[in-house]
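Lab notebook page, bench 4
Experiment: in silico fold of construct C2
Operator: M.H.
Input chain length: 441 residues
Purpose: comparison with the prior construct
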Amino acid sequence: MTFDLLLKNGTVHTPGGAESVDVGVRGGRIVAIGTALGDAGEAIDCTGLDVLPGCIDSQVHFREPGLEHKEDLESGSRAAVLGGVTAVFEMPNTNPNTDTADRVHDKLKRAHHRMWCDHAFYVGATADNAERLKELERIPGTSGVKIFMGASTGSLLVDDDDALSRVLASGTRRVAIHAEDEARMNARKDHRVEGDPSSHPVWRDDESAMIATKRIIDLARKARRRIHILHVTTPAELEYIARHKDIATCEVTPQHLTLAAEDAYPRLGTYAQMNPPIRSGAHRDGLWHWLNQGVPDVLGSDHAPHTIEEKAKPYPGSPSGMPGVQTLVPLLLNHVAEGRLSLRRFIELTSSGPQRVFGLVGKGRIALGYDADFTVVDLKKRWTIGSDWLASRCGWSPFEGMELTGKAIGTIIRGHRVMWEDALANQAVGEPVRFEATEFA
């Protein structure tokens, strides 16, 4: 056989486990897995490297349109592929919000072959568009509906039970939830200490998260609607969600698995400020406990960049959020190297998990007929995150200077070598991600 692309001599992670096999690609899809496969127009020697299914980051904020001084679709996706991410789901709290069909199509048009990775866009839920969501969630290239139960960056907010019920009643796809209780946080604003970002998790406390999580699971059950709870930060929530997995999936972030309040706020100040907050080391350890019990379904970066000038404002006038799409893969590989996470669980959380939760077509595994998306990694590479490697327009990372073991060497998307050894291809090739719910609607 003749292939467009052949990955040779690597350790390939198929659904059956790690194998010393080659992978043949034709027309952007995997057409052969084995040895002595044949010739190819391009062959990549992966000796000493692990070939993983393409990593999917199912929560990023790329800020376009309206906030391009922080990030845009090109720069955010460039950071993604430099870090080893092959597809992203982008959030709707832009300016204007992504809450109509025209605004979804505008993003898709802006993204086509300008974004370096494949992509899908969330539709933002509002009290005004609730009844139209069942049509909006069916637009090809949409990853579903997003609800903000607590105010964060932007103006999207659905915080009362009546409006939440109307949103959940409109449509059938899994709804993504930012679960913080707006009423409790409004009542606790006096817990914020001027100039002290370590008061952020005191204001947006554990109970703010738990109240919202219990509310939305109860409402979802009444509506018979599946939900996906984003960036869970408390062990108590994961214990609760574990009892409701028939209706609720959930996500954790590398930031909450890596940073702890005791160190992060004194060292990073407002650069550690995000919603929901970075909490204590005990919280972080609790997240790891439930992660290794199998409760979280996916890992998302919640990439949410703000400029250095914006972050320099005194708390609480400083905005919440930090970049993370470029560091998602290396941080997790470092956790693999240090024994906290198995490589099999890493693949589940970043590839097969997103495929299962969101119903992706052709992504999430190395198997015949699937898109030729690969994250090629060197599990033993020791390196330090430097400013010259970071591509986000915001120009900083809370993990700059961190020494890691494990790095993405290559990002291959539908058979295109988009990144290899920190060098980008000549052309972005990003296309919309396909979903069962829109492909066969």
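Observations: Residues 206-223 form the longest helix (18 residues). DSSP finds 15 helices and 19 strands in the chain.
Next step: discuss at group meeting.
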